[in-house]
C-alpha cells in the first residue's frame, strides 16, 4: 500500500482497557472503535478530545460498551460530527447495551456522562451496512473503501478491511474475533476460501493479544460444568445468578439454557428460568428479527421449519425486581451487567451471596477492580466491602427546598413564556397601522351618495373564506367517500393493537426508551456495605473469543506483512509478538522480515514501508510547471524543487521522517533499454519524484525538532540554472506476453523461442537475470518500429 499509514492507540494497548484506536491513511483518519471502561474514566476522553477535529470516520466492531461505550459522549459533549459505520445488529444491539447501561446507573446514582438523547443522537448518525458490503468513501476519503467481514463473538461482530485505490496492500482491523462455530453464530471468515481476505495478504493486520496466554476449556466440558452447577444448586433449593451482558453473549447462554430446560432428562423443567435487564423484551425481539445474521443451522431451521430459537418456552423475561419476584423459587437468573458493577447482577448478588445454598456464575473476564473480576481472581473470598448506591425519597427540609426550587423554576418559565407572547402580540399590532377596531361591525368608509339612476351593488363586509360543497346523490342516496371510513378504520385497528399489547412490553419497531421516573423527588445515597460471601462462586468461560494457539494459526494463514498487537497484558503481548515473529519469519516462503509492533497508549506507529513517500505541499507556481506522463491509472512526473519548512511549521499534520524512509527495506525495480548510448537507468516503479534541498540564504529558524516532525514542508520551484539534469526513466512492469499481443496487432510476427521473444526473425527481446529487458537486433526499420512500440508501453519521465 503506497500510502502514509500511522496508528495511534488511545486506549487498550499493553493493558486490558477498552478498544479505541486512531488509524491515519494519508490525510484520512479513522477512529477504530470508541469503547469506555466500567468506571467511565475521563482519561480516555481526554486522549480522544485532542484528535476529535481530525476524525473523519468511525468504525464500530461490536455492540458492547468495550467497543462503543464512549460514542454518546463524543457526539453529545465533544461534538463528533462524522460518518459512523456499523452492521445492522451492532446498531440495534448497541442501543440496547447503552440503554441498559444508562438505566442501571441512573436508577441508583447521579449519572451525567450521557443521556438517552445522546444515545439516540449518536445512533441516528450510524450508517448501517451488511457483511462483505464494500463502501467507497468520498470527499477527503476519495480512493478509500471499507468492507466489514464476519468476526463472530457477538451478533453483527465485524472485522474491518480498509483498501486504498484497490491496491495490493490493505489494512485489516480484527479484534476479539472467534473462529469457532457456536449455537447462534458462525465462526469468523477472516481466512475462509470464499472470503476476499484470502485472495491477497494484507499489508497491515491490527489484532489483539487478549487471549494470547489464555487456555480455554473445551465446549463440551464447559457446558457440562454449567449444567452440573445449576442442577446441584437448584436441587439444594438454591438460586443461581449468572452474570451476563445485555445483548451480546447472553444470546448464546439463553439458547443453551432454554434447550436444557426443554430436555426432560435434565429434570430442570421443574425449576424457573428468567432473564432480567432493563431492555429484555427488546433484546429478544430484535434477536428474533435478525436470524439471517446467525449460524447456518439456525437459518436452515428457520427456513425449513419456521423454528426461531429465540421463541423461548421456559425463559421468562423480566424488566425489574418486581417482575423477578413473581417467578417461583428456586430459579436460575441471567442478569446484567457482566462486570457486576451496576445493574441487577450487583443487586441480586448483594441479596443472595449470604446464603450458602445459592451460586454465582461469572461468564466473562472484565477489567481489574470490578466485582466480577474480584470473584474470578479469588472465588473463595468470604467478605467484601461494596459501594452501594441507591435512591431515597426526599423528606423534610430537603423536600421543601426542592419544591421551592421547582416552583421558582416553573414561575420563571411561565414568565418567560408570557414575555415572549406579549412581544409577539405587540409586533402583530404594530404591523397593522390604520386598521379600525370596533366591538361591533361598522363600515370604515363613509357612505357615498348616488344619483339613483344606476343600481348600486351591495357592499359585502369581510368574512372568513368558505366554499360550500354541494352534495352529490343519486337514486340510492348520497355518495360515500371511502377515505373518511378508511381513516377511522385504521385508527380503530391501532387502538385495538395497542390495547392488546401487554402494558409492560414496549413496541419493537423502535428501540425501547427507558423512561426516567421523576414523579417523586429523590436523592442518591452512597454507603459502604460489608457482605458475607457464603454462596459458591464459579467462573465458566462464555466469552466467545479465539484462544492464543488458534489466533496464532489464523495470523499464519492471513500472512500479513506487518502486525500491530493491542489490548492485552504486557507479558502476554510480548510473548505473542515473539511467537508471531518466529512463525512468520521462519517459513520457507518468507521473502522479507515481518515486523510486529506492540505500541503503548498514545504511541504513534508509522508502518509506511514504500520508498520516497513524502507528505508535502506544492506551490501554484510549481504545479503549473509540471509535465505529467500517464502510467496505468496514475500520472507521474519528475520534480526538481527545494524544501521550505517556514510555511509548513504552521500546520499540525505529521510527516514521514527521513530516518524511517532510509531504513525502509523496499527495493526498487529497474529496467534497461538501449536508448542511443544511454547505459543504465534506475527506476522506482511506484513514485518517480525527487526533491533537491537547497541552502536557504535566510537565517535558520530556531525551532524544536519535534515541530519539524509535525510540520508539512512546502516545495518551491528551482531556478532554471539551478535545475540539474537526470537520466530518462521508464516506469512500468512490462510482461513480454502482453507485449507480444501488441506486436501481433501491429502486424509484426512475434513468437517465443526458448524464453526469448523473436520479432520478424530480426529482433530479440528478453528479460535478463536482474529482471531488466534487453533488446537486440540489427539497426533496421523493424528495429526502430519495435523499439517505438516498446517505449509506448512505459511512462517516460
TrEMBL record:
Keywords, in A-Z order: mRNA processing, Nucleus, RNA-binding
SUPFAM superfamilies reported in the protein's UniProt record: Metallo-hydrolase/oxidoreductase (SSF56281)
One of the protein's GO biological processes: mRNA 3'-end processing by stem-loop binding and cleavage
Composition-biased stretches (Basic and acidic residues): 410-419
Chain intervals for the UniProt region annotation (Disordered): 410-447, 500-520
Keyword Oxidoreductase: no
InterPro entries: Beta_Casp, CPSF2, Cpsf2_C, CPSF2_MBL, Metallo-B-lactamas, RibonucZ/Hydroxyglut_hydro, RMMBL
Keyword Heme: no
Cellular component GO terms, alphabetical: mRNA cleavage and polyadenylation specificity factor complex
Compartments, record wording: Nucleus
Stretches assigned to the Beta-Casp domain: 250-375
Signal sequence bounds: none
Stretches assigned to the Metallo-beta-lactamase domain: 17-234
Taxonomy, superkingdom: Eukaryota
Predominant location category: nucleus
MF (Gene Ontology): RNA binding
PANTHER family: CLEAVAGE AND POLYADENYLATION SPECIFICITY FACTOR SUBUNIT 2
Family classification: Belongs to the metallo-beta-lactamase superfamily. RNA-metabolizing metallo-beta-lactamase-like family. CPSF2/YSH1 subfamily.
Name listed for the protein in its UniProt record: Cleavage and polyadenylation specificity factor subunit 2
Source species: Phallusia mammillata
Organism taxonomic ancestry: Eukaryota, Metazoa, Chordata, Tunicata, Ascidiacea
Gene that this sequence comes from: Cpsf2
Amino acid at each position: 500500500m503506497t500510502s502514509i499509514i500511522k496508528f495511534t492507540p488511545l486506549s487498550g494497548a499493553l493493558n486490558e482497557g477498552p478498544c479505541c484506536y486512531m488509524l491515519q491513511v494519508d490525510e484520512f483518519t479513522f477512529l477504530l472503535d470508541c469503547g469506555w471502561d466500567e468506571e467511565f474514566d475521563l482519561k480516555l476522553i481526554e486522549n480522544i478530545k485532542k484528535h476529535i477535529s481530525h476524525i473523519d470516520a468511525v468504525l464500530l466492531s461490536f455492540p458492547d460498551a468495550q467497543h462503543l461505550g464512549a460514542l454518546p459522549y463524543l457526539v453529545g459533549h465533544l461534538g463528533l460530527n462524522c460518518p459512523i459505520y456499523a452492521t445492522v445488529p451492532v446498531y440495534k444491539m448497541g442501543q440496547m447495551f447503552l440503554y441498559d447501561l444508562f438505566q442501571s446507573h441512573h436508577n441508583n446514582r447521579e449519572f451525567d456522562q450521557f443521556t438517552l438523547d445522546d444515545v439516540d443522537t449518536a445512533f441516528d448518525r450510524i450508517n448501517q451496512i451488511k457483511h462483505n458490503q464494500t463502501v467507497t468513501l468520498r470527499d477527503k476519503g476519495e480512493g478509500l473503501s471499507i468492507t466489514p467481514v464476519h468476526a463472530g463473538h457477538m451478533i453483527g461482530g465485524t472485522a474491518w478491511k480498509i483498501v486504498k485505490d484497490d491496491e495490493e496492500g490493505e489494512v485489516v482491523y480484527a479484534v476479539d474475533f472467534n473462529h469457532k462455530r457456536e449455537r447462534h453464530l458462525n465462526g469468523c471468515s477472516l481466512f475462509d476460501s470464499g472470503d476476499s481476505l484470502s485472495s491477497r495478504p494484507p499489508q497491515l493486520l491490527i489484532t489483539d493479544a487478549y487471549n494470547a496466554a489464555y487456555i480455554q476449556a473445551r465446549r463440551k466440558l464447559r457446558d457440562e460444568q454449567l449444567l452440573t452447577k445449576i442442577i446441584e444448586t437448584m436441587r439444594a433449593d438454591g438460586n443461581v445468578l449468572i452474570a451476563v451482558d445485555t445483548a451480546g453473549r447472553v444470546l448464546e447462554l439463553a439458547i443453551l439454557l432454554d434447550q436444557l430446560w426443554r430436555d426432560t432428562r435434565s429434570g430442570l423443567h421443574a425449576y424457573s428460568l428468567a432473564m432480567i435487564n432493563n431492555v429484555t423484551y427488546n433484546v429478544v425481539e430484535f434477536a428474533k428479527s435478525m436470524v439471517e445474521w446467525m449460524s447456518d443451522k439456525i437459518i436452515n431451521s428457520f427456513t425449513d421449519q419456521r423454528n426461531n430459537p429465540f421463541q423461548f418456552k421456559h425463559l421468562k423475561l423480566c424488566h425489574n425486581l418486581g417482575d423477578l419476584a413473581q417467578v417461583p423459587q428456586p430459579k436460575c437468573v441471567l442478569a446484567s451487567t457482566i462486570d457486576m458493577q451496576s445493574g441487577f447482577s450487583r443487586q441480586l448478588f448483594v441479596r443472595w451471596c449470604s446464603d450458602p445454598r445459592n451460586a454465582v456464575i461469572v461468564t466473562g473476564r472484565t477489567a481489574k477492580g470490578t466485582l466480577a473480576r474480584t470473584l474470578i481472581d479469588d472465588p473463595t473470598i468470604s467478605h467484601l466491602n461494596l459501594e452501594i448506591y441507591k435512591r431515597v425519597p426526599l423528606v423534610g427540609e430537603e423536600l421543601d427546598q426542592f419544591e421551592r426550587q421547582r416552583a421558582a423554576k416553573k414561575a420563571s418559565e411561565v414568565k418567560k413564556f408570557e414575555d415572549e407572547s406579549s412581544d409577539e402580540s405587540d409586533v402583530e399590532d404594530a404591523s397593522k397601522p390604520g386598521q379600525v377596531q370596533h366591538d361591533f361591525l361598522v363600515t370604515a368608509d363613509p357612505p357615498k351618495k348616488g344619483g339613483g339612476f344606476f343600481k348600486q351593488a351591495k357592499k359585502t363586509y369581510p368574512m372568513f373564506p368558505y366554499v360550500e360543497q354541494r352534495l352529490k346523490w343519486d337514486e340510492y342516496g348520497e355518495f360515500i367517500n371511502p377515505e373518511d371510513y378508511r381513516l377511522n378504520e385504521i385508527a380503530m385497528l391501532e387502538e385495538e393493537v395497542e390495547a392488546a399489547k401487554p402494558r409492560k412490553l414496549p413496541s419493537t419497531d423502535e428501540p425501547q426508551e427507558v423512561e426516567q421516573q421523576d414523579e417523586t423527588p429523590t436523592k442518591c445515597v452512597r454507603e459502604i456495605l460489608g457482605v458475607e460471601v457464603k454462596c459458591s462462586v464459579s467462573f465458566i468461560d462464555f466469552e466467545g473469543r479465539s484462544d492464543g494457539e488458534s489466533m496464532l494459526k489464523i495470523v499464519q494463514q492471513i500472512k500479513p506483512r506487518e502486525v500491530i498487537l493491542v489490548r492485552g497484558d504486557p507479558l502476554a503481548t510480548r510473548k505473542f509478538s515473539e511467537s508471531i515473529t518466529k512463525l512468520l519469519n521462519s517459513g520457507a516462503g518468507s521473502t522479507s522480515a515481518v515486523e510486529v509492533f506492540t505500541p503503548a497508549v498514545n504511541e504513534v506507529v508509522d508502518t509506511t514501508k514504500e520508498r520516497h513517500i513524502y507528505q508535502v505541499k506544492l506551490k501554484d507556481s510549481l504545479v503549473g510547471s509540471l509535465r505529467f506522463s500517464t502510467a496505468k491509472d496514475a500520472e507521474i512526473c519528475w520534480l526538481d524543487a527545494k524544501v521550505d519548512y517556514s510555511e509548513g511549521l504552521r500546520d499540525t499534520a505529521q510527516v514521514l521522517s527521513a530516518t524511517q524512509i532510509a531504513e525502509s527495506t523496499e527495493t526498487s525495480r529497474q529496467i534497461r533499454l538501449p536508448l542511443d548510448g544511454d547505459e543504465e537507468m534506475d527506476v522506482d516503479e511506484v513514485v518517480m519524484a525527487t526533491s533537491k534541498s537547497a541552502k536557504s540564504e535566510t537565517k535558520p529558524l530556531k525551532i524544536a525538532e519535534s515541530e519539524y516532525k509535525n510540520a508539512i514542508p512546502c516545495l518551491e520551484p528551482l531556478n532554471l540554472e539551478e535545475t540539474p539534469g537526470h537520466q530518462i526513466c521508464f516506469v512500468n512492469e512490462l510482461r513480454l506476453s502482453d507485449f507480444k499481443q501488441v506486436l501481433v496487432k501491429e502486424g509484426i510476427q512475434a513468437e517465443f523461442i526458448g524464453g526469448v521473444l523473436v520479432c520478424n526473425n530480426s529482433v530479440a527481446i528478453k528479460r535478463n537475470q536482474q529482471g531488466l529487458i534487453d533488446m537486440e537486433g540489427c539497426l533496421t526499420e523493424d528495429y526502430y518500429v519495435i523499439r517505438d512500440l516498446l517505449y509506448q508501453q512505459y511512462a517516460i519521465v
